[in-house]
From TrEMBL:
Transmembrane feature ranges: 7-27, 39-66, 78-95, 115-134
Protein name: Malic acid transport protein 1
Species in which this protein is naturally found: Colletotrichum chlorophyti
Record field: compositional bias (Basic and acidic residues): 437-453
Region described as Disordered: 437-466
Membrane topology reported for the UniProt record: Multi-pass membrane protein
Keywords: Membrane, Transmembrane, Transmembrane helix
Top-level taxon of origin: Eukaryota
Subcellular location field: Membrane
Main location: membrane
């Protein structure tokens, strides 16, 4: 497919704009009686439609080629825009003739007075539909300079599909004795495909390494900023305590010389006057200033709260959240996951790569140790706890913490493997809970056979047993289980 295929349609694609301008010129010069506007419009629509269908046919052929043989080479891609561009001529012509429907269509056309309005509405709808066919793909603007490289633009698309990306980046594989031109974007031998795949993977590895380093640097900056902010909060807290001590102890006698009764008595005076309904406000030492908040004391009195108290509360909240972020990152760094546990079912390529080095083996070994440590921790809580119910509670709480920590890897390649590992730990807890419920049930049956059940024993019907054995409502059943034991 080349750009010359659409050249015969170009004369046909200008007939509707030409007819619209011709009718508009006749109206301006009052020569509409010399023209058959209806015949001109119908002929223009017929010829323009033929040209649009030719362009649509070429576009359909190109889309079919995309579905079978991927994107063409760079020097052939301008033909795509030439074959799609004619829709703009058709849209302009339809809208122009539709706006002139009251001139083109005679009165009482086809026995209705609404023919003009119907034609105008239809022209707008058809124009919008054709305009939608020529809409380009929205431009994605990178939000950070770290991902401004043109190679990474495709990864910023919210609808990014790895399979579609690989299909668009790599040519199809040649099967059997097929022989095709390499320049025509056809299938290539396995050796050429392997070279292109290796080059693509090398570029991806370079960008991944760079972005990983950038992420590490940003994380270090956050951690350093957290320490500095924590120091500033502590410094402000110390200054606040020092000021409060000075006001309440050191300067108390000096303040009473100027304010009889102290600052507290002066602060109560404005609130008492407001309660009595006094309309006129007088400035006093205890009146709240701009930026101060009013606080209601337990005895119903209203006092002014300095603005730095609100700032101190804000800094305290910020500090607590920074501590939470630091703890989460610390736990995430300790939760090393072995590369061998990652799922490879979504891979689309299998290429030869160099043997992993010592660092890869170290990560694998450390990850296996971390996973085994977590398994031992859950197993110890389930089997070696003095109170089996408390052991199940602690194990379930630990698994919930791991699930929350797993949100750090949401959307990454490690999410699926980590989720699967956490599910295996949860399965251990559910199995232990099921066994414990079975033991309690058997004990209650033995007690029931000997005589009247003792107070506090567990009684469950068939539906409850089925629910317990299913493992649902684990935390809600632990209290019942504790009472039974």
């Amino acid at each position: 497919m080349t750009p010359t295929w659409v050249f015969p349609a170009y004369p046909l694609l200008v007939t509707m704009p030409l007819a619209g301008n011709l009718i508009a010129g006749a109206v301006q010069t009052n020569r509409t009686g010399n023209l058959s506007t209806t015949a001109i419009a119908l002929c223009a629509v017929a010829t323009q439609g033929a040209g649009c269908l030719i362009a649509l046919m070429i576009s359909a052929a190109f889309i079919y080629r995309l579905m079978t043989q991927k994107l063409p080479r760079d020097f052939q891609r301008p033909g795509v825009f030439i074959s799609i561009g004619p829709f703009a001529f058709t849209v302009a012509g339809i809208l122009q003739l539709g706006s002139q429907a009251d001139i083109i269509i005679p009165n009482d056309f086809m026995g209705t007075q609404h023919a003009v309005s119907i034609v105008k509405v239809m022209s707008v709808m058809i124009g919008l539909w054709l305009w939608g066919l020529a809409q380009p793909k929205p431009t994605i603007q990178p939000k950070s300079s770290h991902v401004a490289d043109e190679f990474l633009i495709g990864f910023l698309d919210p609808s990014f599909d790895p399979a579609a990306y690989l299909n668009a980046s790599l040519p199809p594989l040649q099967h059997g004795n097929q022989h095709s031109s390499r320049s025509g974007g056809q299938a290539v031998p396995l050796a050429d495909l392997s070279n292109e795949a290796q080059a693509l993977l090398s570029q991806l590895n370079i960008h991944t390494t760079r972005l990983s380093g950038t992420l590490t640097q940003l994380t270090d900056d956050i951690l350093r900023s957290g320490s500095r902010l924590a120091y500033e909060v502590e410094l402000l807290r110390g200054e606040t305590l020092s000021l409060a001590e000075t006001m309440n102890e050191t300067l108390q006698e000096d303040i009473k010389k100027f304010v009889p009764g102290g600052v507290d008595a002066a602060a109560k005076e404005p609130s008492l006057k407001v309660a009595e309904g006094e309309g006129e406000r007088r400035p006093s030492l205890g009146a709240p200033k701009t930026g101060e908040a009013m606080v209601v004391a337990p005895d119903g009195e209203t006092t002014a709260e300095p603005p730095y108290i609100n700032q101190l509360r804000t800094l305290t909240v910020v500090r607590s959240r920074l501590d939470s972020v630091i703890k989460t990152f610390g736990d995430a760094m300790e939760f090393v996951f072995p590369p061998s546990e990652l799922s490879v079912s979504s891979s689309f390529l299998s290429v030869s790569a160099p043997d992993p080095g010592a660092e890869q083996h170290s990560t694998e070994e450390k990850g296996q140790q971390v996973l085994q440590k977590l398994r031992d921790e859950i197993l110890q809580l389930l089997t070696k706890s003095e109170d089996p119910v408390k052991g199940i509670e602690k194990a379930a709480q630990r698994i919930e913490e791991l699930k929350e920590l797993n949100q750090v890897w949401k959307g990454t390649a490690e999410e699926k493997g980590r989720t699967k590992f956490i599910e295996t730990l949860a399965k251990m807890v559910e199995d232990r809970h099921r066994d414990l419920m079975r033991e309690v049930d058997q004990a209650s049956r033995r007690d029931g056979g000997e005589g009247r059940p003792r107070k506090g024993s567990v009684h469950t019907d068939g539906a409850e047993n089925k629910t317990y054995l299913g493992g649902y409502g684990l935390m809600s059943q632990l209290q019942k289980l504790r009472n039974g034991l």
